[in-house]
Amino acid sequence: MSMVLTPLRGFPLVKSGDDLVELTVQALSVSGITLREGDILVFAQKVVSKAEGRWVNLATVTPSSRATELAQQIEKDPRLVEVILRESRAILRTRPGTIVVEHRLGFVCANAGIDHSNVAGTGTEQEEWVLLLPEDPDASARRLRAGIQDRFGFPIGVMIIDSHGRAWRLGTVGVAIGLAGVPGLVDLRGKPDLFGYRLRITQVGAGDELAAAASLVMGQAAEGTPVVHVRGFPYPLREANLSELLRPLEQDLFR
Amino acid sequence: MSMVLTPLRGFPLVKSGDDLVELTVQALSVSGITLREGDILVFAQKVVSKAEGRWVNLATVTPSSRATELAQQIEKDPRLVEVILRESRAILRTRPGTIVVEHRLGFVCANAGIDHSNVAGTGTEQEEWVLLLPEDPDASARRLRAGIQDRFGFPIGVMIIDSHGRAWRLGTVGVAIGLAGVPGLVDLRGKPDLFGYRLRITQVGAGDELAAAASLVMGQAAEGTPVVHVRGFPYPLREANLSELLRPLEQDLFR
To answer: Measured between alpha carbons, how far is residue A45 from residues A50, A88, A114, B108, B217 in Å?
Structure first.
């Protein structure tokens, strides 16, 4: 069976307070897609954050002395560094322009996932606003799923994704940051291979593989297709959340 | 436009010396897929390695004292550790059962990508054989592409993938290890976002995102679908190779 990923057409610019469920239902219709049980909708973090009003006006931020000092080291706006630190549990590494952090949500990423592009402020202050990640992306995903299921009357999956860099490879790739009904890990332990041996690979990051696939067809920037419809995800849908994809600190060899 | 990923049906077990081009042409036919210009075929590393006869009989391996010492520390077969070290440029970390290495091909992965599952040896010695990665996966990809293009008369892309763990997230994900005609990185620097700002995200690991997507539909183990047909990859095909996806050592913050 094929897996088909289709970016929804006709998704408008999202403002604080917008009803993403309603916008998604409309965009599905515009795109000529009839949602079916077991389909998955993947949302770019950016539109979820915008709908949730996760803006911070940098003009209102007073950097701490720690943020000011770090900002000088890495040549970054001290107010932005302050916001990054507030969203983080720990700093792992720094280099010019970038702070690699453990985000308060548990994952490791650059600059706490704070987005300085596609930022809509007000008039001349546009560049003073930055967008945080959703407060609780798993909860956001569950709300989106519940709202969409209410409209259609059957179970689907919802995932919220962002783009992260990697330690040893270049280029960002899509990763899951919020899950509702989509498995993050698929456990293949004990399944026999073709010759009856037990597999050595124990767990597949199926949720992140789906995130990468959706990110690929979303594109970036001007295309403006922040929601992707997925049909044919090859594993059963089930309850899940982000934590199953995060390596526990005691297993971390690279911190 | 949708991106459609279809695992090919009817792909047989692959033996040393098998003609993967011929097997792929047959499997496309069995699967009812008419290949088109611009389509991409993604191959699991395992079938490429098998066709290339990349077997090592552990009974023929004499571990060095270094391999023997390391094997004792991490509780692993010293002959297998010896083979892993021969395939690696550097050891980054070790833990029970696992050596994280810089592979001679340049990427960081566990156990030099040496596969101890799905191993076909001879008779009672089955478990004594392990499978190395292809000697030069970019060259393997180019040969496959050339062979398939010769049959069909138009340009396509070919990628060879493997499954790697990640530093801070659980679960393996598909990554590119050989590229022919498929971009590894897509450079978005300077493209304006919706408000005309320059993007901060500079490069998307599109090849790895495609690898993850293909890995997802390939499944693992008993399914036996090592080749995936892709239609609708959203970026133009171009010449590329693995090196563009590898972070140079001087940019590595986590070694």
So the answer is: 9, 17, 10, 29, 24
In the DSSP assignment, the letter for residue B97 is T
SS3 at position A37: coil
pLDDT in tens, A123-134: 554 568 999 999
Structure tokens at B190: 């300077």
> Are residues A71 and A78 in contact, defined by beta-carbon separation less than 8 angstroms?
yes
Q: Which CATH architecture has domain A4-53+135-242?
A: 2-Layer Sandwich (3.30)
pTM of the model: 0.94
Q: Which helix (H) or strand (E) holds B148?
A: helix B137-152
The verdict on a CB contact (< 8 Å) between A221 and B108 is no
Mapped onto helix, strand or coil, the DSSP state of residue B124 is helix
Say whether the ipTM exceeds 0.90. yes
Domain A55-131 has CATH 3.20.20.70: no
The verdict on a CB contact (< 8 Å) between A197 and B5 is no
Chain A residue numbers touching B213 (CB-CB < 8 A) = 3, 5, 209-210, 212-213, 216
Contact A203, B172 (CB under 8 A): yes
pLDDT lower than 70: segments of chain B: 116-127, 189-201, 220-223
CATH class assigned to B4-53+134-242: alpha beta
How far away is chain B from the Cα of A62, in angstroms, using its nearest Cα?
23
> What is the strand order of the sheet B88-95 is part of?
B88-95, B98-103, B108-110
For chain B, the structural domain boundaries read 4-53+134-242, 55-131
Cα(first)–Cα(last) distance of chain A, in Å?
40
Number of Cβ atoms within 10 Å of the Cβ of B86: 15
